[in-house]
Amino acid sequence: MSKLGQVVESVEKYNKFVLDQVKRARSDEKFGRDLLGRWNDIKAKIPATRTPTGLALPRLALPEIDEPGEIARYLFGEGLPGEFPFLNGAYREMYLEPVREVESFEKNGEPKTGKSDKKPPQAEEPTRLFSGLMLAEDTNERFHYLTQHQRTHRLSTAFDGPTLYGMDSDADGVFGKIGEGGVAIDTVEDMMRLYDGFDLGSPNFSASMTISGPAPIIMAMYIAAAKRRFGQKVVSKLRGTIQADIFKEVQAQNETIFPIEPSLRFLTDMVEFTTREMPRWYPISISGYHIGEAGSTPVQQAAYTLSNGFAYAEMFAARRIPVDQFGPRLSFFLDCGLDAEYIALARVSRRIWAIGMRDVFGAGPRAQLYKLHTQTSGRSLIAAEFKNNLTRTAAELMLAYMNATNSCHSNSADEPFTTPSEEWIRLAAHGQAILLEESGIFKHTMNMLSGSPGMKAVERAVEAAILDEFREIERLGGVLAAVEDRYQRSQIQNAAHRYEQQIYDGTRPIIGLNKYRNGEDDAPEIKLARTPRKKQQLQVDRLAKFKKQNAEKAKRALDKLADVVERGGNCFPTLLEAVEVCSLGQITGRLQEVVGRFRPMV
Amino acid sequence: MPAPIRILTAVPICDGHDSAINTINLEFIRHGIEVIYLGYHRSVGDIVRAAIQEDVRAIGVSSYNGGHVEFFGEVVDLLRQRGASDIKVFGGGGGTITQDDAVAMKRKGVDKIFFAGTSLEEMTDYARAHYGKPRKKRARAKTPDMELAHKLTEIEDAVGKGKKHRRSNIEHRISKVVGFTGPGGAGKTTLIDELVLRFLNQNPKGRMAILSHDPSVVGEGALLGDRATMINSQDDRVFMRSMATRGQAGGLSPATHDCLALLAQSNFDYVIIETVGTGQEAMPFRRNGIVDLTVLVMNPDYGSRLQLQKIVMLDLADVVVVNKSDLQRARTAHTEIEQRLEQNRRDQRLIDTVAKRHRDPGVDRLFALISNQQEANK
């Protein structure tokens, strides 16, 4: 049985354990009494808060139960926020206003007002704006503009097509794609320009890089660029995330450049290095977003993302990286659309992950957390009467926060047309602020909207459906075998096709498109920032110069890299040397000679 | 009945957005169109070469990653350079292609851009109305490959109209013809593509042709998708033609025999023919009498030993390949098939391969076997 099969068993076993605790709480008097005592203690310690209208509320809402069996079902089955199995949240408190009034809510029923002198600690701003355009210096300028008023600098980097496919800007037929949709990176020198002026070793800086196929090469360039600017010592201080999710690329996003097995090997080489040398780096972001955007059902998205995660954990554990070292460095990324499953999709995911990591992989508390970034659904946004997209995104944001996501990106309403413009980016960001800061829905009380009968029903249905998907993948021989069998791909494609059919035949109402359509064109005026040919030529010229300067050294470095890969050792340290003198395309090309090219699946 | 419309679809280089094109492909097929799907992340050169070899009526490009004005323009330009302006170019990119872009693209010679919100029906109606009329008299082909492509179309059309097109003068052929057959999912396409890679590396001037088959859906078109996975075969030294079975059982098309005969006398070192995934019936191309070497590609998961007895092709094939020999069952499969072949008392060869693995030694052995046979027969 693969680890995924064991995860299914562990969840079933855990659910049975919960039922046993419920029974025991009802039959074993001492156990029941202890639970009741613990429950009352928990309630007594809940601090109080007061809304602007003067209403007193507890900072944590709990179900109104006083029967030991139900208390057991809640504490073991769901857990308080921040407690195993984390159904209600990975952390004890999220989104809440800083504590100003410290008083127990339960004690008096009416909180005393005692202003605290202490200023609330300043949290990291949740803003992380995705950016990447034209050449490195253009994106760098944009980064500085975006962060000019912020204490913390959280940069998120989008790369252009050639970079995502591991190609150089001088490759055949890519000229028009240089700097389109993201920044063009060919060499370590580009990487230095990209983050110029930022203190890469600072605790207030973190860089996120959205790239998977050539992720180990780009990671090596980032480290090399940091070392050139700040010296060897900076390496252990680097903070950030690189996406590096090979499975979802093969299942949905199609940006894979090596065959699956060597891709996974290069990834593991990188993870082995970063967990040892860069303890503050997230070397992989396990992403369901692109699976959802490619047309999967919500359950497929959650199931494939989780099973991919468990498969990575299995791989890293097989490389003898301790689970408590790599576990806390895994993070997740989900899509949030408007289907009913999204009421509890991430909640259920968090619970399954925690149980599987604890009971199958032996992970400690920090390695059990399903740390989640959510983005609202791009696919749910449409061009017809596009201002409706504001409402769609608002509803999705509400669902994302009901699932206690750790961070969230809200899409701009003009996304169906173009890279978002400033006006609509601002509205999207403000949508989050209105929900979290202006409205009282999330800022006063944890669990404000958790645990409705409907939410419970969705949780049960979604969990059962995810486990069914796991069983099917297990039956096919595990995640890798199922991927090679195109299982996830064809499931996603079928779901996408069904979705289109439903829009076409009207069983899936899309307002303004197949229902209440007025037929008027309200497209926004679009100003596109295209990369000028002169800039594209500049990038090609720079690359030519780099290649000429390093021609001799590059040859030796590539030979050495190929040799290490042939012999089967960890190639990441050699990659770190190679990026000093080789371009992205040179390294990709040489690696492909040794391990082959990815053969697309149809 | 008029011959089905043949259209090539693809997603541009550095773009992996294939969700829209997958849906459109299915819709085209449902409306009787034969779609040659080239896949995503495809260069202008690959697209134009494939369109000419397949002699399609139009190219549909689905682009979501920017650079579309240049990319579509380059496709049109290269078609024109190659003398293939009768192949039209259409496409779309949801909201990423603006009205202004579309105007610029049309000025460059693009036939039609579909905008976000266009229904699938509108697209298929357009394709059928604009690319479905019988061709007028065609201009002289500019290159031998294009001439060959035109002739193959003539053969397919003539056979479709029930005309006998006997032109198979197989005495004059130069090429070695190797036939590949076997059940669906055994990995025939990947195996052939790996052999192509070895051939191209070993023969710097050699050329080969591939005649690949995919089933027509009953009463509908066909998805001819082999090119999408055959990354090594998209090369100027490889002439590839994808054929739909158009209602014929047995894994080949009614026009296969004549097309193969033409290819076999057209200056290729090798002609490879691949059937659709077949069942237990006899070797489909045996009766053609053109195939020099037949290769049966097996999947280790064929079921019980009894199933082997029923596979007639095991009696007829010159070479039997057990692909996916990294699977658990492969060793058993090898032994059982070996015993099965011994009954035949013929000089049949059995080779284990893992075609998906780069530089697989089993594929090397198969390649050596095929090329040695070539030497021996000269």
Overall pLDDT score of chain A: 92
Distance between the first and last residues' Cα of chain B? 44 Å
Provide the CATH top-level class of the largest domain in chain B: Alpha Beta
Number of E-type strands of chain A: 11
What is the CATH superfamily label of the largest domain in chain B?
A: P-loop containing nucleotide triphosphate hydrolases
Strand order of the largest sheet of chain B: 9-7-10-6-11-12-13
The low-confidence runs of chain B, each spanning 5 or more residues with pLDDT under 50, are: none
Euclidean distance between termini CA atoms of chain A: 29 Å
Q: Mean of residue pLDDT of chain B?
A: 90
User: Could you give a short account of the major beta sheet of chain B?
Assistant: 7 strands, parallel
Oligomer: heterodimer
Number of helices of chain A: 23
The backbone outline of chain B, from C-alpha atoms, is: globular
| Helix share, percent of chain B | 25-40%
Radius of gyration of chain A: 25 Å
Q: How many DSSP H or I helices of chain B? A: 13
Q: Bin the helical content of chain A.
A: 40-55%
Note the beta-strand portion of chain A.
5-15%
